[in-house]
Amino acid sequence: MEAADDALDWLGKPVHCADCEHNPLLSQGRCRKGYACVLDRRIKHMDRFFRSVPQLAASYLDHPYFELRAVATKYAGLFSVPPMLSDPEPEVRMTAVARLPLERVRGLAHDPDRRVRIGVVMKMEGKDLISMLADADHYVRVVVVRKMAPDLLPMAMRDPEIIVRRWVARRIVETRLIDMHDDKEPMVRLEVADRLAPDRLSIFVDDPDLRVRFTAAERIDPAHLHLFLQDRESIIRDMARQRLSERGLPVSVHEPT
For the chain, which end, N or C, has fewer CB atoms within 10 Å of the first or last residue's CB respectively? Predict the structure, then answer.
């Protein structure tokens, strides 16, 4: 049970049910102070109110409290939502974008708030989605590469941000994964080493990062394990010896013929 005595409106004033125009709903059990109340500044309380009486949401779309406008936008009839795409507050625009089809929200692909742009990206496919790889914010580009088809991801594998390239490495088609093995960032190469086919992992034998070499030694085809027996780090040499021993293979440094 949530406390009702400390319920405050958006101006910080105590909520009084007697002063509310929706007071008749109280006796119907469709609102309750401190739990489901349109006057309460807490979002979850406003949400519960409109969940009970969604037909009242449209009348709050011009309320001065932006959080209330955002919640009302969530429940208002669809014909009332389009004007909210131009609301000055991004929280309201985000809610409107979530409710409308791409054709109605495409213009917000360049909204100043990245959260709104991400909402638009979530509705995009194909060329629309690819165009968002040019977004200035890497959080937006992360959403794009997580949504794109894996066979289209090569166009993003040289993105300037590490987190974007890591997501590309996690999802790119295997035939192009090897193209990222020389990425300048160890964490990207680690993603590659974690996915690349075991018989191709010998390309990491001289990688400068211990984590990358360890992952390669842990996953490499046993036929190539000898390549790691002379690694400069004992933890990697031990890994190679252990794997060879478990398979009954000779634990010795390979001598070229």
Answer: C
**Tens digit of pLDDT for each residue in 124-175?**
999 999 999 999 999 999 999 999 999 999 999 999 999 999 999 999 999 9
Which tokens sit at 89?
């507050």
- Say what the pTM is: 0.88
- Is residue 36 helix, strand or coil? strand
Render the burial of 181-209: b for 16+ CB within 10 Å, e for the rest.
bebebbebbbbbbebbeeebbbebbebee
Distance in angstroms (rounded) separating the CA atoms of residues 16 and 245: 76
pLDDT tens for each residue of 30-64: 999 999 999 999 999 999 999 999 999 999 999 99
Classify residue 34 as left (phi > 0), alpha (psi -120 to 50) or beta: left
